Amino acid sequence: MDFLLAVLSFLIVLTPLILIHEWGHFIACRLTGVTVLEFGLGFPPRAAKLFERNGTEFTLNWLPLGGFVRPLGEDFVRPVGEKATERDRQAYRRYLEEMAALRKKVPKLKSVAEATPLQRLFFLAAGSGMNVIAAVVLLIIAATISLPPVVLAAAPNSPAGNGGLQTGDVITAVNGVAVSNAAQIEELIEAQRNSEQLITLTVQRGDETLQLTLGEQTGRFPNQAVLITGVTRGMPADGIFLPNDIILSVDGRVRSVQSIVEYVRERGGQTVTFVVQRGTERLTLEVVPLSNVAAGQPAVGIGLQPLEFSLTTGLALADRAQGKSFPEAISAGIEQTGFILGQLIRFPVDLIRGALTIEEARPVSVVGISQLGGQVVSAAVEDRSPLRLINFAALISLALGFTNLLPIPGLDGGRILFVLVEIVRGKPMAPEREGFIHMIGLMFLLGLFMILVVNDIVNPIGQLIR
Predict the structure, then answer these.
(1) Locate the PDZ domain: which residues (predicted)?
(2) For the domain that residue 232 is a member of, what is the CATH number?
(3) Contact criterion met (CB below 8 Å) for 74 and 68
(4) Number of folded domains in the chain?
C-alpha cells in the first residue's frame, strides 16, 4: 500500500510540477523566438515519442530526474557546437519544408546562441518562475479551505470523556448543525446545555463517521493539562510514554509545559513520577531524565502541548484551518510563499553554520519525496480534504524551483552563472568547453541521485517522521 501511495503521489504531485517547470522554459522560448526541438518528461535515454506539434517533439524518457526543453543549439542539458546546431537546424528545416504545402513561408529558425544574454536569462529562469507562480496559486487555494476542529483530548470524568470522545476525533456537527471551528461547538453546546435534548456530536474517526452523545459528569476533572505530542526514539521517554498521553501531574503537582521542561532538566539522573491519562486508564509512570543536558536540548524526549479543557464539556479542541475570503487568501498565499522561500534560502546557511544536524538536513531523491507524498495522500484521504496535499505540492514546487537555481553545472542556475560571466566578459565561453563542464555537473548529479535513491529505499524517510 505504501508503494502504491508513493507512486500515486509521484503521478499527482511531482509529474505536474515538473511539467509546469518545463512549460515555463517552453513559453520563454516561444516568447523570445527560440526554436524548440524537444519537450521531454524525464531525462534520456528516450522511452517513447508521445507526439509532435509545430516541429517540437514531446517525449517520455527513462530517468525520472525531472524534465527538459531542448531548444535549437543545445542537447538536453548543455549548449552544443555550431556543427551540431547546424545539423539540428537542417533537420528542423526539412520538417518545415515537408509542411510547405500548408505554409506560405518557412519561419526563420533561431538557436539559443542567437538569443541575447537577457533572453537566455529569461529562458533559464522561467522554469523556476513558473514553479513560484504555481506555488502562489496553490497556497491561495489552500488559504480558502476550512477544516473542522480536532479533539486534542477529552478530560476524564467529563461529559466528553464519558461520551467516548478520543484524541484525534474530528467534530463536524453538533445536533446536526455543521461546525467549522471550536468556538461554534462551544456556542451550540452552551445554547442547548440547559434543555432536555441530548447533545450529539457527529465525529469523524479514521474512516468511520460516529454519532456520540455527551455523557454525564461523574467527578471533578482538570481544566488544564499537558498533551504528549511525540516521543523521541532512543531517549529516556522511549518505551514509557506514548503520543496522546495526557500529563495530569508531575511528582504530585499539576504543571505547565514550561515548568515540566525546567523541572525534569533540574532532576537529571533522578526518578521523576508522571501521572498520565491514556485512553480510559490512569497510569503512574517513572522516567529518569538525562544529566548535564545542554541548553535547548531535551532531557526526556517528549513533545508537549498545553491543553485547556472546556469547563462545560471537558473537551480540549484545536482549530485546524479557517478558510479566508479571496482577498485575504491572496495576501496569505503570497506571504506564505515568501516565508517558505526564506526558509529554503536559510537552509544551506544553517547547515554550514551547524544549526542543523545532517539527519535534519537529509536530502531526498524523487523516491523520498514520493514516500512523503504517499503519507500526505493518505492523510488527505483521512481528512477528507485536499488541504495537506495542496500545501505539500506548493512546498515541493518552491523547492524544485529553488534547487534548479543553485549555481551547479547541469542545473538552470549553473547555466545562468555562465550567462552572467558572459555579460561580464563581453563574450561567451566556447560551447564545447561549457558543454563539457555541464556534463561533469550532470554526472555528479546522477551519482548523487543514485546514492539518494538507495538511501531512500534502504532507510525510508517516512519512517523517520512517524
Answers:
(1) 150-207, 198-279
(2) 2.30.42.10
(3) no
(4) 2
Which distant-in-sequence residues (6+ apart) come within 8 Å of 70 by Cβ? Answer: 36, 37, 38, 39, 40, 76
pLDDT in the model for residue 130:
97
Domain that holds residue 277: 224-306
Residue 86 near residue 72 (C-beta atoms within 8 A): no
- The residue among 285, 306, 327 that closes a domain is 306
Q: Which grid coordinates belong to 277?
A: 491519562
Query: Residue length, the chain?
Result: 466
176: exposed, middle or buried (C-beta count within 10 Å: 0-12, 13-18, 19+)?
A: exposed
CA separation for the pair 73, 35 (Å, rounded): 9
- Note whether residue 333 is domain-resident: no
Sign of the C-alpha dihedral computed for residues 449, 19, 41 and 38 taken in this order: negative
- CA–CA distance, 142 with 321 (Å, rounded to integer): 9
Same domain, 299 and 396: no
CA dist., res. 380 & res. 375, Å (int): 9
How far is residue 64's CA from residue 66's CA, in Å, rounded to a whole number? Answer: 6
Mean pLDDT of the chain: 84
DSSP state of 74: B
In our burial notation (b when 16+ CB lie closer than 10 A, e otherwise), range 391-401 reads bbbbbbbbbbb
Q: Look at residue 106 and tell me whether its pLDDT is greater than 70.
A: no
